[in-house]
Give the backbone structure.
Amino acid sequence: MTHDRPGIHDEDPVLMASALAVQGNEITEYVIYSKLAERTRDPHNQSVIKKIAEDELRHYQIWKSITGREIKPDAIRVRWYVLISTFFGLSFGLKLMEKGEGVAKDAYTRLMVKFAQIGILLEDEQRHEKDILDLLEEERLAYAGSVVLGLNDALVELTGALAGLTLALQNGKVIAIIGLVTGIAASMSMAASGYLSSREEKVDEKNPLKSALYTGVAYILTVSLLISPYLLFSNLYLSLLLMLAIAILIIAGYTFYITTAKGQAFWARFREMTAISLAVALISFGIGWVIRSTFGIDL
């Protein structure tokens, strides 16, 4: 069906609503990218984000020529993604924003037959931004391996140790103190190992001291969270269950962060880390029972 003028006719309210939603999304993202570019000190990252902002503004202008209307950016969404990107990094914030887009594709599909230029925009949305965002360079992601090392070791070692101590000692405060002392000593050991390893390997340009710091801090924060139920509750088995729940939440939170920032699959990595931590905790709980039965420990 042909029309005597470009744009969407008033008798197409559904089509118009979809187009306006996408147009609003484009101008909102233009503002987000522009604000983040202003806040970014790294020249490389700044040029990458500015390029995306220019594309979003161009997309907005094309949609405006189709709808014939001006749209204001969503101020709440702008503040939210600027805040997320500031605290959790550009890669995470921007890829999380990309993940949440669903309206655009539907509108593109409906309008692509009628307006030839929409096909080009669809290609941009599906491929161009992802390709550009992958060029972002961030210290947080560069040291992600060090954080993973600290988290993994703390989760595996401490969930196992605390589970074993729960049955062997039967005293929440003692378990928490032993867990904390063990965790602090292990975190310093891990940090030192990470430092020496980074210095010896010299595979990349990572600072060995920063690498060690990321590993040690990730370890000690994880330890502090895992022992907290034993300090807050007198029921040991409730503390054990809460400790395991916290471990799973830590795994889920970090896995979501790193898989979003790096564009990887969430569930496979989450299942693997959870299975390892819970398996070690179960084995250690059994060892604690054997030790308690054999030696008759009653603390």
In short: The CA atoms of residues 164 and 293 lie 13 Å apart. The radius of gyration is 26 Å.
